[in-house]
Design a protein that fits this description.
The protein is built from 10 helices and 6 strands; from the N terminus they run βαβαβαβαβαβααααα. By secondary structure, the chain is α/β, with parallel strands linked by helices. β3, α3 and β4 form a beta-alpha-beta unit.
Length: about 220
């Protein structure tokens, strides 16, 4: 029997232990290791070469979306499933753009999670039904996506991009828009991806080039 080798990445130990225990109940799964942050995830992905990685969207120090992007870049054969409590459209789309093959909410049943892992291992995409419905609704509202990267940004992302162009740190941006630093990091990662730039300096230059400024 071919076993599906799984790496669990979550910054909560109880979640890592719970998922590991669940996988051990199925003969076609092998829980090869776990990680709590981006650095550990990259190190263990290289070391144990899992088939599927279950990734929390929000990690300490870096977003799971960023971790997904790095893993898909350096280990293209590995499949990533984002497991999260959040079904926000932006996070779902950012995860898909980062290379995730699955997006599952944490309140999903055990059987559904197991089916998702098996499907992704076979090369299929798997989205939680709640997520699928929200994306379909968004597509109906927005129609075909614009080729202009700037138009792909939400209004909040545009505000954060302006703050980046003003040289503000994540902490300063968080205070300005009343969000946590961790959430701002997720937004910054999303903005860089959508603009197809590699760092904040390039994002700031893009904002200046397109005369994106705060309103007086």
């Amino acid at each position: 029997m071919v076993k599906i080798r799984v790496l669990v990445v979550d910054d909560h130990e109880i979640v890592r232990l719970g998922l590991t225990h669940l996988l051990e109940q199925y003969p076609d799964f092998e829980s090869v290791d776990s990680a709590s942050n981006l650095a550990e995830a990259l190190l263990k992905a290289e070391r144990v070469r899992p088939d599927v990685i279950i990734m929390d969207v929000r990690l300490k120090g870096a977003s799971g979306i960023e971790a997904c992007r790095e893993i898909c870049k350096y280990f293209p054969g590995m499949k990533v499933i984002m497991l999260t409590s959040f079904s926000e459209d932006e996070m779902v789309m950012d995860s898909i753009y980062a290379g995730a093959q699955g997006y599952i909410l944490k309140d999903v049943g055990n059987d559904e999670l197991i089916r998702a892992i098996r499907a992704v291992f076979r090369g299929e995409a798997h989205l939680d039904p709640v997520v699928t419905n929200k994306l379909l609704e968004r597509m109906r509202r927005n129609g075909q996506k614009s080729d202009d990267p700037l138009e792909q940004l939400s209004e909040r992302e545009k505000k954060i991009l302006i703050c980046i162009a003003e040289g503000r740190t994540n902490r300063e941006i968080a205070q300005k828009v009343s969000l946590s630093e961790k959430t701002i990091r997720n937004y910054v990662s999303s903005i860089l991806t959508k603009l197809n730039v590699s760092n904040r300096a390039e994002a700031a230059a893009y904002a200046a080039q397109h005369k994106l400024t705060s309103q007086p």
